[in-house]
């Protein structure tokens, strides 16, 4: 029997997966019915449905050593986290973007995530 993680624990593990480039940390924090809306392609992003699709996308990003994610403190509103971040993919001044994920957690797993970027 496993215990349910708090939203803070889920976010810590999610963020660690990207910071450490370790997609295995994502495996048990994504719900089977997870839905994510990616930031690309503009203007609406791509929607992925189901745990395997969400895990595949996030694993691709987390495992990419040419990407550097940094996070800021998230604001927790019940089951919803407003989680700001920055993404850098090169050394140039314009090789970066800031954004935010709206992440909903239920029973210790991510069930929904919507990503938005500053343009």
What's this, in brief?
The protein has two helices and seven strands. With 119 residues, the protein is α+β, with helices and mostly antiparallel strands. It has one domain (7-117): Roll (Nuclear Transport Factor 2, Chain: A).
Structural features, described:
The chain is an alpha+beta fold and 119 residues long. It has one domain (7-117): Nuclear Transport Factor 2, Chain: A (Roll), CATH 3.10.450.50. The protein is 21% helix and 39% strand. The protein has helices at 7-19, 51-62; strands at residues 30-37, 47-49, 68-71, 75-77, 80-88, 96-106, 109-117. Strands 1, 2, 3, 4, 5, 6 and 7 form a seven-stranded mixed beta sheet that branches. Strand 5 (80-88) and strand 6 form a beta hairpin. The radius of gyration is 14 Å and the shape is globular. The model has no long low-confidence stretch (mean pLDDT 95).
**What percent strand?**
35-45%
Based on CA atoms alone, the radius of gyration comes out at: 14 Å
User: What is the residue-mean pLDDT, rounded to a whole number?
Assistant: 95
What is the CATH fold-level name? Nuclear Transport Factor 2, Chain: A
Order of helices and strands: HEEHEEEEE
The rounded distance between the terminal residues' Cα atoms is: 45 Å
Whole-number count of domains: 1
* Assembly type: single chain
The geometry reads as globular
* Helix/sheet category: alpha+beta
**Low-confidence runs (pLDDT<50, min 5 residues)?**
none
Q: How large is the count of helical segments?
A: 2
CATH second-level architecture = Roll
The CATH class assignment is Alpha Beta
Taking the sheet with the most strands, its summary is: 7 strands, mixed
Helix content: 10-25%
